[in-house]
Specification:
- 48% of the residues lie in helices and 17% in strands.
- The chain is α/β, with parallel strands linked by helices.
- Among the domains are: 2-157, Rossmann fold (3-Layer(aba) Sandwich); 199-349, 2-Layer Sandwich (Alpha-Beta Plaits), CATH 3.30.70.
- Helix 8 runs antiparallel to helix 9 (235-252).
- The structure holds ligand C2E and calcium ion (2 copies).
- One calcium ion (CA) is lined by residues 507-508, 528, 564.
Length: 627
């Protein structure tokens, strides 16, 4: 038996063998170069043959070959190989060791059924049968064909594996790319500080909505006095505040809305709305939601914001750039209106911007053009109604617009650098005038920006010295806003001014948000009670109570208290009773021209007013005086 196998696979091939090899080549292709299959030359396949007399020996030989990395292509197994394990068992064990090997069962008639062996040593496409007695050619043909297929199978498996590896790699690359891309998209559309959508995302969403036909609201929100937080508590605190506010806004925006950080302390909000009234209400809710006291690094910060909102209807303007501009105008207007409020856009805002620009350019020519002048309103003592000083009030008579109230143009000057030029002119002018009075002081208004200007103290001092006036005759009027926005610095400035002998009055007192308690740390000479309280004194209990407590507080702190806007005899009596130290208002005199003020300063008493309780004021200023 073994001898016939040996002959079958002898190196020298018979003509039959060559023909079979050619047949196999035709069947499986013969481009299998550089492979591990033993192949002698082009025309014939050479086999390395291993014999085993017993099943176990065969299994062992296979095991060894596998370990050496030289697997067999085909195993010919006799079914009966007594003693030891039979062919079926041998095939089973071989299959267990090598899933690729082709098994050929060589069997006589009555042996195992092929199905049984297939079950044990399958798969069926790797198990074959040759009936005994066999032809040499049959064995060689089978071996050649199976070895060829075996080789191809191995190559195929390798190619498959390579492909599978590449697919896995591609999938990984793909996933990586996708992750990178979505990260990039996220970065491009989000603000890194808050993780909120950024300006780009906002503009995109706005453009998207503008293309539709639904009614929607575009709101802009800006934190009030955010710069102050940054300047006093540092940028980290500022960042923390921005983050908190974003959280609050995101939680309070109407459903389906978008809150984006446009930059700095500015947020943009988009939401659907049935109309302007509803939109304003929604904005007010959001404002309220972020008007809370935030704890930032151990500091309590009172957050507050201003908002402008514009509702875009189905028609006619749906240009996103224009929508943004309108929302922006509305925001500006709300800041101007005193902050902490919502302003809906209206067409006049466009108009008012244009007007402001005109005022601004007119104002810049006013100083050189001699269109400005100062008028003076006396401040009198409670006791004898003696004139102890004058408040200098600016008047502008524009050739283009006629007389314009300082309440109108001062805020415009404040927004540009004009305020400094204007302020310096007022200082110089009033210093010249005070020299014409026997001993009264002049009280000059300073806007917050003037007060916060670099080297404020030195600048004022220089002008006063230059004029040769004692600082004691120069009173600086500032408002609460000017000092409480940066309390520490303001306290320092006031202290220096006071050291140099200037007088300092806190103007419009009671209208700001400073607590009465807070003003202790500021070096002041007097408080000026805002005229709205004096006005309300006769009508509302609250105003009277406020006037009383301000006077009380002022006296307790050793400060003078000037009641401004005194218009009636009744007010004079009430204020005297309450203990105000000084009075100012139309009852005594309207602001008057320099010439009249000079005369009044000389007289010391206002004609007809030296006896308290007399009729109306006699002095009236000319053109441009407002009341
Ligand atoms: P203010 O400092 O509160 O000035 C007092 C304002 O009340 C003046 O208005 C004055 O004319 C008015 N007034 C005085 N007595 C009475 C009264 O009995 N009844 C009523 N109803 N009003 C009275 P004016 O002159 O229109 O000034 C408005 C504001 O403009 C001032 O308010 C001040 O804040 C600002 N201002 C005026 N001149 C200057 C200036 O030279 N520099 C700066 N920075 N601001 C100025
Ligand atoms: Ca004033
Ligand atoms: Ca005032």
């Amino acid at each position: 038996m073994h001898e016939s196998y040996r002959q079958s696979f002898a190196p020298k091939q018979s003509g039959d063998g060559a023909a079979l090899t050619a047949m196999a080549a035709e069947l499986f292709g013969d481009d299998d170069e550089g492979d591990s299959t033993p192949s002698a030359d082009d025309s014939a396949m050479a086999f390395e043959l291993t014999h085993a007399m017993q099943g176990l020996d065969g299994v062992a030989a296979l095991e060894t070959a596998l370990a050496e990395g030289k697997p067999y292509a085909v195993a010919f197994i006799d079914v009966r190989m007594p003693p030891g394990i039979d062919g079926k068992e041998t095939a089973t064990r071989i299959r267990k060791l090598d899933p690729n090997i082709n098994i050929v069962i060589v069997t006589g008639y009555s042996d195992f059924s092929p199905i049984e062996i297939s079950k044990a040593a399958g798969p069926t496409d790797k198990i074959f049968y040759i009936a005994k007695p066999f032809e040499v050619a049959e064995v060689v043909q089978t071996a050649t064909a199976l070895a060829g297929r075996w080789q191809l199978d191995i190559e195929l498996a390798a190619a498959r594996q390579q492909l599978a590896d590449q697919v896995v790699m591609l999938e990984q690359k793909g996933a990586e790319l996708a992750a990178n891309e979505s990260h990039a998209v996220h970065i491009a559309n989000h603000d890194s500080l808050t993780e909120a959508p950024n300006r780009l995302a906002f503009l995109r969403a706005l453009t998207e909505r503008s293309r539709g036909k639904e009614r929607f609201a575009t709101a802009m929100l800006d934190l009030d006095r955010f710069k102050l937080v940054n300047d006093t508590l540092g940028h980290l605190a500022g960042d923390e505040m921005i983050r908190s506010v974003y959280q609050l806004l995101a939680a309070s925006v109407p459903e389906g809305g978008l809150v984006a950080r446009l930059g700095g302390d500015e947020f943009g909000i988009l939401f659907d709305t049935p109309g302007e009234e509803a939109a304003v209400m929604a904005c007010e809710l959001m404002l309220r939601a972020c008007s809370v006291t935030l704890k930032v690094f151990g500091h309590s910060i009172q957050a507050s914001a201003s908002m402008g909102v514009v509702v875009t209807e189905a028609e006619p303007v749906r240009d996103p750039v224009d929508v943004m501009r309108r929302a922006d105008l509305a925001l500006n207007e709300s800041k101007r209106a005193g902050r902490g409020v919502v302003r809906p856009f209206d067409e006049s805002m466009d108009e008012s911007i244009r007007f402001r620009r005109q005022i601004e350019s007119g104002l810049s020519k006013a100083i050189a053009g001699g269109e400005l002048k100062l008028v003076y309103q006396p401040i009198v003592s409670r006791e004898g109604l003696e004139v102890i000083g004058f408040e200098a009030l600016l008047r502008w008579n524009s050739p283009e617009y006629g007389p314009i109230s300082p309440g109108m143009f001062i805020p415009i000057a404040e927004e540009s650098n004009l305020i400094h030029e204007l302020g310096d002119w007022v200082i110089d002018q009033s210093l010249q005038e005070v020299k014409n009075w026997p001993d009264q002081y002049v009280s000059v208004n300073f806007s917050p920006r003037q007060f916060r200007r670099q080297n404020f103290v030195a600048r004022v001092m220089e002008r006063v010295q230059h004029a040769g006036v004692s600082p004691a005759r120069f009173q600086i009027e500032i408002t609460e806003t000017a000092i409480f926005d940066d309390a520490d610095r303001a306290a320092d400035t006031l202290y220096k001014l006071r050291q140099m002998g200037f007088r300092i009055a806190l103007d419009d007192f009671g209208t700001g948000y400073s607590s009465l308690y807070n003003i202790r740390k500021f070096a002041l000479d007097c408080l000026k009670i805002d005229r709205s309280f004096i006005d309300g004194m006769g009508r509302e209990r609250e105003s009277a109570a406020i006037v009383h407590s301000i006077i009380h507080l002022g006296r307790a702190l050793g400060l003078g208290v000037i009641a401004e806007g005194v218009e009636t005899d009744a007010q004079v009596q009430a204020l005297r009773l309450a203990g105000a130290s000084h009075l100012q208002g139309y009852f005594f005199s309207r602001p008057i021209d320099a010439i009249d003020a000079r005369r009044m300063a000389e007289d010391r008493f206002i004609e007809g007013k030296d006896d308290p309780g007399d009729g109306p004021a006699l002095y009236q200023a000319g053109n441009g005086t407002h009341g």
